[in-house]
Design brief:
single chain, mainly alpha, 2 helices
Length: 60
């Protein structure tokens, strides 16, 4: 469930950034950037954990 919420947040933030750039609205761009930063806080630790486990248990 957390992955789905994070994915929706990333998609929403990218949409806000695109809409903000087209309409020259800095508020939408700022909100989009903040949402991406918040979502990356949840994504990055899992990514590094997966990379670490892949190197430890992988077939290198």
């Amino acid at each position: 469930m957390r992955n789905i919420i994070t994915l929706i947040g990333v998609i929403l933030s990218i949409a806000l950034i695109v809409i903000g750039k087209k309409r020259h609205n800095k508020l939408f761009v700022s909100i989009g950037v903040v949402l991406i930063l918040i979502c990356s806080v949840y994504i990055v630790p899992g990514f590094f954990r997966g990379v670490r486990d892949g190197f430890i248990n992988g077939s290198m």
